Amino acid sequence: MADQLNPIAWLVAMLQTALFVAIAPLFAGWVKRMKCYLQNRRPPPLLQPYRDIRRLFAKHVVLAHTASPIFRITPYIVCGTAALAASVIPFVVVSIPMAAMADAIVLVGLFALGRFFLALAGLDIGTSFGGMGSSREMTVAALAEPAMLIVVFTLAMLASSTNLSTIVAATLHQELALRPSLLFALLALVLVGIAETGRIPVDNPATHLELTMIHEAMILEYSGRHLALMELAAQIKLTIYAVLTANLFFPWGIGESWSPGVLGTGALAIAVKLALLGALLALGESVVAKMRLFKVATFLAVAFTLALVGMLSFIMLETR
Amino acid sequence: MAAYADLPVVEQAILTLAALVLVTSFALLAQSRVIATIHVFAWQGLLLAATTALVALDTGRSHLLISAALALGLKAMFIPWLLVRQARALGILREFDAVIRPGITLLAGGALVIFCYSVVLPVKQIAESITRDAMAVSLALVMIAMLMLVTRRKAITQVVAFMSLENGLFFAALTATHGMPMVVELGIAFDVLVAAVIFGIFFFHIRDSIETLDVEQLNRLSEIDE
Q1: Is the pLDDT of residue B2 over 60?
Q2: If I label A102, which of A24, A156, B208, B216 is the partner at 20 to 30 A Cα–Cα?
Q3: How many domains does chain B have?
Q4: How many structural domains is chain A composed of?
Q5: What ipTM was predicted for this assembly?
Q6: How many beta-carbon pairs below 8 A join chains A and B?
Q7: CB atoms < 10 A from the CB of A262, how many?
Q8: How does DSSP assign B176-195, residue by residue?
Q9: Under an 8 A CB cutoff, do A305 and B9 touch?
Q10: What is the four-CA torsion angle of A177, A180, A182, A188, rounded to 10 degrees?
């Protein structure tokens, strides 16, 4: 691969990652806005998440006297792994040099690293809410991660590679076929994404209801710039799952070369796809009720089964 | 061997429908509401009918169209309607039949699919039908329905499991040899129909004698317990 030595490729990859991190709050704001429209509420301005982050950065950090260094470094690790994960995903253009170093399995590993520190930070202060949130997060993660990995394996078998750029390119260039494996992998990825990013029906990002919160319970003790980083990390993670869904299964329009025109088309295509996905997510969150925490295991078992049926139907039905 | 993407669209659609039938089978396994179980069973019948019709179109065997019509009429409409009516008469339409450990049951279902695939693999090599890839799916339908039979407690969901087992056999005949002879197929269809009616009568008998449809109650002798 000549991409690794091409400075333009690295420049585009870095710009692409910066763009990814920069639009993550916008995507979260867009989902919130669509939800407000659907529920007949007046939406906040589209740029509100940026203002929130700026406001939080300007505030002082209040630390509990029991906080250990882990509590203080966690926001940087969580946000760092999220940004790193964003850098390995084909976003505007297919072939990025980072994808050769970190494949889809590393992506799952990066999520796990961030989650591990998040759970540690939840336990660190010693409040009961933090511990409860960590325990729940790890329960959800233990069930969601295998499903996510099986989705990755299905796609990897299809493209004969775990490299995300190669997978997207393979989906882009293959003949259009009715593939049951991709259908089930898509459904499983959507369910896993909903569980992992803490959206309705698994978790509600908009409330601090102690009986049900998962993600919010862990970051309850954070303030100031730490909280800003945590929120940014959550927004990046939401956008990562949306971009994964869009580019792995509907890669049409993504740029394949470095010329400005192609990059512009790629940016426009992903913007349209994200806008549609955000609207669909908001619609889903408006029509589905939050489920009881004990039902989440069944929800994720369904995701796992769908992923498994996807992989099996690839082996049984599509390999000849 | 031709790659999957080179197959005609109809054959791709048949295989996709086969995968969807497998998913409904998993849904039956995990579904605990009586009414929802019957609905999923109806969907399975509908998908079976659609698959049969597509196979009929693709292979030009017109007698399969009759099978498809029978599947649509009996498995997707009449038997579910009969079951819903009986459940309503028994007052258990909205009840739950607790699935024993849904997560592990689903995993066991997945393991069964893998087992069936490994069993069918040698047969698949020598089979010539266009649907030979779906043979493992049809065997898995039978096995998953058996698993459902042993993990359920209520008589009515066990009957749904039994009917779904019959769906699996029907599907096996379709995928392995493009359907059974018409006489056999008609015979089985009417057998199933009669079975559904007789099961309905049994529901009322079971309820009258032990005042519940929970068949766990039949495992012990009431005289000894008292």
Answers
A1: no
A2: A24
A3: 1
A4: 1
A5: 0.85
A6: 83
A7: 15
A8: HHSS--HHHHHHHHHHHHHH
A9: no
A10: 160
